[in-house]
Amino acid sequence: MHTRIRDYPSRSSEIIRDDPGVRDAVTGATIAFDQKRLQGYAEVDADAWRRWAEGVKSHTLTHLDRYLAEAETQLEANGAEVHWAADAAEAREIVMSLAARHSVKSVVKGKSMVAEEIDLNPALEAAGIEVYETDLGEYILQLLEEEPSHILGPAIHKSLQQVQELFADRLGSEPGGDPDTLARAARRVLRDAFIQADMGITGGNFLVAETGTVALIENEGNIRLTTSLPRVHVAVVGIEKLLPRMADLSGFLQLTARAATGQPIGCFVSLVQGPASHPDDDGPEAVHVVLVDNGRTDVLAHEHAWEALRCLRCGACLNACPVYRQTGGHAYGYVYSGPIGSVLDPGLLGLHEAMPLPFASSLCGACEDACPVRIPIPEMLLEWRREAQEEGLTPWKERAALKGLASVATRPGLYRLAGRIGSRLGATGVARGLPMLGEWAADRALPQPSRRTFRELWRKGIE
Amino acid sequence: MRVALFVTCLADHYFAEAAADTVRLLRHLGCEVAFPADQTCCGQPAYNAGRLGEARRMAEHTLGVFAGAVGEPGDPAASDAPAAPDGPAATDAVVLPSGSCATMVKKFYPRLLAGGRDTAPPTALADRTFDLAEFIVHRLGVTELGSGLAGRRVAVHQGCHALRELRLETEPAVLLEGAGAEVVPWEAQEECCGFGGLFSVKMTAVSAAMADRKLDTLPEVDWVVSGDGGCVLHLDGRNRARGTGVEFVHLATALWRGVAGDARAAEGSDVAAVRDAAEAARPLEAR
Predict the structure, then answer these.
(1) Which fold has domain B153-262?
(2) What is the pTM of this model?
(3) Chain B partners within 8 Å of A363 (Cβ)
């Protein structure tokens, strides 16, 4: 996938400067989500749940080969077909060949970050297949030809008014309708799409190895329809989505919902195990599960990054993140944004490709407190920063400044002298001496050094 | 109790008066304060940038400076040794007027020097190092500081490291209330100000927008109080650039103003007049 990660510094400032509505919409929505999560956590022994979930996920990841093989065996026993995709191109080719094999002309999709990751829609459309995003947020973005801005709420950066105008313009809905009215307008289009569709494509929140079950959480009912109405269901699932046993699933369904929206559980949970076993039964004729690697085994092999594979894609870290709140996801330039994106993307894409995301954090730690599987995001960011420094991926000015600091700070005499000079020069003088302060001063008044350093006050005696 | 002050490079050079107020406050609370003269920077700027070699050198320097300043817990030598105010004398605790630098010593040094978070052994220094508010509330067991801040409305900015690493969730507010101030709820109280050291230079627009969120949600207060100079430099820098016009005060200074105001009141002076005079005589270094 083509990324615009490198442009994070300029894109983030452009969004803040030129499109202030994004910051307002994202801040408002994420704070609301975050407060619901806090409430959802407070109703249970969240710390115990989170430790349990961390343990199950870490165990699964360290035995991934075994559980993947078990999942494949079970899925096939259920009558589903399993396909392995090493990278995005292979995943696309698999889905395209399935579409050809099943004579697919029209596709409905449930929200799937993996589908975004492998750039599926453009490939389907290029083959002349009609594609309908059926998650309301994704549908809005499809009309606007925009990418998702948030794992859970893809259109989080849009205001109600923008959606009202869009739907009035494109769907002929009455101007200024409330959210229910807007949902009805989308439903009119999407109901027909569901009925027409030959293939439903979804992601998967979990894949239970023991039973070969793809579990999907949602609130709108569109995934239920996507997995049950069309003749063919294709679930595109990252290989890290495994859970060992059905007994694990219940806890994860509840924890994911609480972390994401504070709900006890999603309004709809769909468990897909295979095609309809009898022509008179409900459900698709064929079920395909595409297991996607696309960098995940590299992440798993990485000493520090592997913990990011525990991620449940709940979006709690994005909602808690004061950095993400200023811009939404588009500034990050890749499908996984916010704190989890900043630790996952370097692993999936390679650190060089993902610069400067490890530095797009103030290390405030709110993400780690929110994460339902206790991914130590701040520490992982520091590990990526260390690698970036070792590989020379940071600006030389910065490296030189920090080397200089260490030289001075390990020589007390020199340190005292530098401090005295700084206090005599005053703010402007200090700024002239330190090149990086120029950027600071563009948005802030320069810090004023004390006229006397503390150690000078100490020497004179503190009354 | 004997205390070694680790003033931090930031307070040494940008908040010298707040650092002096830290000394005054600690002495007022019965502590003998030493200032090991060879102390420099804790190394956090390098640590956060991922330059662990430089960070390790600064951490080792700091450990060397303060190694003599802390005895083993329960070691009588720690409190019986003669105090040399400028030297690394044996003291009971190391106190920093910064939650962030205290976190560096307490939480990040063990990781940094052990080379990994799973194997980090606590160091003697980590166990005996305290953020100022943490020290007063938990080590000294003091929460009542008189009523010198009566009538003051303050908002508390909680530094992220103090809040989420040291879990000092209530201590600054408890102390301010213990000095008579009214702590006004602030919806963004626990949100990061956007400083983050290098972050504020590298991602300057996002960093400034984060400060704006803090400033835009501020309630009507006399002071915004924080135990971290880094946050104050950044927030007040943005505050002055925008002309928001609220006064930022380091926690040490706020508490000392309360204690000093109280002391003069006890001598029979007019509280408000003395406090105003004390403030006029000691303008904020950061302004």
Answers:
(1) Rossmann fold (3.40.50)
(2) 0.92
(3) 48, 160, 196, 199
